[in-house]
Design goal:
Layout lengths: L1 H27 L13 E7 L5 H10 L8 E8 L5 H11 L3 E6 L6 H10 L4 E4 L5 E2 L3 H12 L3 E4 L1 E4 L18 H4 L8 E3 H6 L12 H12 L3 E4 L5 E4 L14 H18 L3 H15 L6 H6 L2 H18 L12 H9 L3 H14 L3 E8 L3 E8 L7 E8 L5 E5 L1 E3 L2 E7 H4 L6 E10 L2 E2 L3 E2 L15 E4 L5 E4 L3
Parallel strand pairs: 1-2, 1-4, 2-3, 6-9, 7-10
Antiparallel strand pairs: 4-8, 5-10, 6-8, 11-12, 12-16, 13-14, 13-17, 15-16, 17-18, 17-19, 17-21, 20-21
């Protein structure tokens, strides 16, 4: 009996020791408040999971910030990395007092570590970084100064794509102190500067668990609660990366049902929170175009199996029944209106036919043998398509004005010949003129597309007119001579 008692006592002591070790690990997993926690204007929150070798570049960009270290803190949450990233974070924390590192078991998705970072920080603003991106050296100082000056709640800084990452570049053509909600909803990625008071007073946090578009749900709530939202585009603030190994979460294959539930949740947030029902409908329509109709782009839709197409159609038609009244489809342009109508009808084959029409209306094209004389600008147009076109037109549009002229394209044999009379072009004034091609087939007119400048060169200038290639390789006319 005594032996049994001794064994039982040993087991209890072992359990207590294991419990103490576990507690020590929890405490050891958090480096504790930063030296700048009492003075920081911004807390930079970084969720980290297996981001090597990119992580070092981000960390160095944070070290290089020209904002006084007393005015910002870095809260990096290691979400169970197994690639050595956690040790690298500890190295930086040992060197820089304004860094706090929290190690935790893997949660499987960025929402939880971001929330941990929000709660651990003390800055008046929170800025969210991803571990494989980087900041410009003046980014934090400029963002905080602008937000302070203009009393901004949510600030969207200019982003630059790296490694082929595409961004909504049209948003960042200029700074907007007070941007409207419909416009800013075009960017739902988390790389924003957000006032902490906004997050806390409205109880806004990221959804946790494996939820697609969790950042979009959180940002939508922020935008709708914000008193002032701004776009800051006077500097390259944030460099967002497409990983070479393709392991960005955003590039993982989406499941039709769960992904569409996430889109529906964003639509619900908009519908329930917006004060103007008409505006709410238009914002949901924009969401429908960006997050639903993009799955029916020709190459993407054709690459799906028949079963996958049916799953997307079922999920999307249910979403449309809840959130997209049929009358709103008239607000959409080609090809989005046609895609939406076919989804509503559940017409998988019709969507395949539409994909063929879309491709016919956007072929690669080549300008050949441009000539300029006293009366005309002439060139041949070669289209990489076997489609039969009902009409082909060239649109000449004066830059920075609404003035435009349309010219028919003549077909002679197998060639398309373009003749632009100079007397008509002169009606546009002494301006720069951009040239577009517009095609019509199957009763549908496609969008105007910029003409590519010929690779073999351009003719010599003629008095009063010059053909030139833009920095993007498009063909334009200079009528200012």
């Amino acid at each position: 009996m005594a032996v049994v008692d001794r064994l039982a006592g040993a087991r209890r002591r072992l359990k207590r020791q294991v419990a103490r070790v576990a507690q020590i690990r929890v405490r050891a997993g958090d480096s504790g408040p930063t030296t700048s926690s009492a003075t920081a204007r911004v807390s930079v929150v970084v969720p980290v999971f297996n981001a090597m070798p990119y992580l070092r570049e981000l960390l160095d960009s944070l070290v290089a910030q020209d904002l006084d270290p007393a005015l910002f803190e870095v809260i990096a949450v290691d979400d169970g990395s197994t690639d050595g990233g956690g040790r690298l974070l500890d190295d930086y924390s040992a060197r820089y007092g304004n860094w706090r590192i929290i190690h935790q078991r893997n949660s499987g998705w960025p929402g939880h570590p971001r929330n941990v970072g929000i709660d651990a920080g003390a800055g008046a603003y929170v800025f969210f970084c991803d571990a494989d991106d980087r900041l410009g050296p003046e980014a934090l100082r400029r963002m905080v100064a602008f937000a302070d000056e203009h009393e901004v709640d949510v600030l969207a800084p200019r982003m630059v794509g790296v490694g082929g990452r595409r961004i909504q570049s049209s948003l960042f053509t200029g700074t907007v102190v007070d941007v409207d909600t419909r416009t800013i909803l075009a960017t739902l990625s988390p790389q924003k500067l957000i006032r902490r008071e906004l997050l806390d007073s409205h109880g806004i946090r990221f959804p946790e668990g494996r939820i697609r578009l969790e950042d979009g749900m959180m940002l939508t709530r922020c935008y709708l609660a914000s008193r002032r939202t701004a776009i800051l585009a006077d500097y390259d603030y944030y460099f967002i990366r497409r990983r070479d190994d393709g392991t960005n979460i955003s590039s993982e294959r989406a499941e039709p049902e769960s992904y569409t539930r996430s889109v529906a949740e964003i639509a619900r947030i908009i519908t329930d929170s917006a004060t103007d029902p008409g505006l709410a409908e238009l914002m949901v329509l924009d969401l429908h175009r960006r997050k639903v109709l993009r799955f029916y782009a020709p190459a993407r839709y054709r690459a799906m199996s028949a079963a996958t197409r049916r799953r997307w159609l079922r999920a999307h038609s249910d979403f449309m029944e809840r959130f997209v009244p049929e009358r709103l489809e008239t607000e959409l342009e080609f090809p989005f209106r046609q895609r939406s109508e076919l989804i509503r009808a559940g017409d998988a084959d019709g969507l395949l036919a539409l994909a063929a029409t879309e491709e016919a209306l956007t072929p690669n094209h080549h300008v050949l043998r441009p000539r300029v004389d006293e009366e005309t600008v002439t060139f041949d147009l070669q289209l990489d398509s076997t489609a039969e076109y009902e009409a082909i037109h060239i649109l000449a549009r004066a830059r920075h004005t609404d003035a435009a002229l349309t010219f028919p394209v003549r077909r002679t044999g197998g060639a398309h010949t373009v003749v632009l009379p100079r007397s008509e072009l002169e009606d546009l004034g002494r301006v720069l003129v951009d040239l577009f091609v517009r095609l019509r087939t199957d009763g549908v007119e496609g969008p105007p597309r910029r003409l590519n400048a010929p690779v073999e060169g351009l003719p010599a200038d003629s008095p009063g007119i010059r053909l030139y290639a833009t920095v993007r390789g498009n063909l334009s006319l200079d009528l200012r001579g």
